[in-house]
Amino acid sequence: MTVQTELANVAPSKLSVNAITKRFRTRGTEVHALDRVSLDIAEGEFVCLLGPSGCGKSTLLNIVAGLDSADEGTIFTDGKLIDGPGRDRMVMFQESALFPWLDVIDNVMFGLKLKPGLTNPERREVAHFYLKLVGLEKFMRANIHELSGGMKQRVALARALAPNPRVLLMDEPFAALDALTREQLYGDLQRIQQQRQKTIVFVTHNVREAVCLGDRVVLFSPHPGRIQEQFKITLPRPRDINSVDLAEHASEITKALKGHMKSDTEVAE
Ligand SMILES: Nc1ncnc2c1ncn2[C@@H]1O[C@H](COP(=O)(O)OP(=O)(O)O)[C@@H](O)[C@H]1O
Ligand SMILES: [Mg+2]
Prior knowledge:
The protein is an alpha/beta fold. It contains 8 helices and 10 strands. The chain is globular, with a radius of gyration of 19 Å. The model has no long low-confidence stretch (mean pLDDT 93). Bound molecules: adenosine-5'-diphosphate and magnesium ion.
């Protein structure tokens, strides 16, 4: 496969989650993290999983990533049963988990080592393409410790995108960043999703963030983790997190959330 065909390939993926149940057992106690969670995600759809801490969002994302397994239920991408991690589903976490001993471009190239059929110069070209996409072209040779938190998450995003996964799984990737940096990344992520047509599952406990990014917001409730309600978001893109329209949608979802929530759980508006 040439670099050009690799970069031109923007085929998205359909994801099907069927009756996923997961319990954690630790020292005699049992947590019912997910209870028969089913979800169909269309090709190229941006879905936000929203809910208070402990409602099973990360557990579901890890199971879709193949990093954890379900007690019951199945997950398919394009009709193929998931039974472990794969290059078709890349994950991005709150902490960027970059390698501090590698510079920026080598961090992005690292994930491409798994990709057969590309020579080293071709991998470099692919990494360069994605670093440019996230606005870090000028920092390719920088050390990781020289970067701000936002820049590190951009590198992590480029690294997740570089193997050209059809599904991108993101677990509160911007939660540790300041508000202004986050807003820039919301814009970038929307642009990249439209250009590369990724199917994205994005975990957040922030209602506005979910409305800003999602084509659909899936509201979870805890103990046991279940899907409570779903909201289609049809606001035009790119969306501004500070817009009045967005705030109105967010307040509708916040109301639903508060209605389902116990008083000891918290969620950001
Ligand atoms: N490895 C684990 N061992 C034991 N309990 C866990 C483990 N991972 C998650 N849990 C529990 O499962 C529930 C769901 O957790 P999680 O998926 O992390 O929620 P969220 O991401 O929505 O905050 C919580 O009660 C959490 O304490
Ligand atoms: Mg979590």
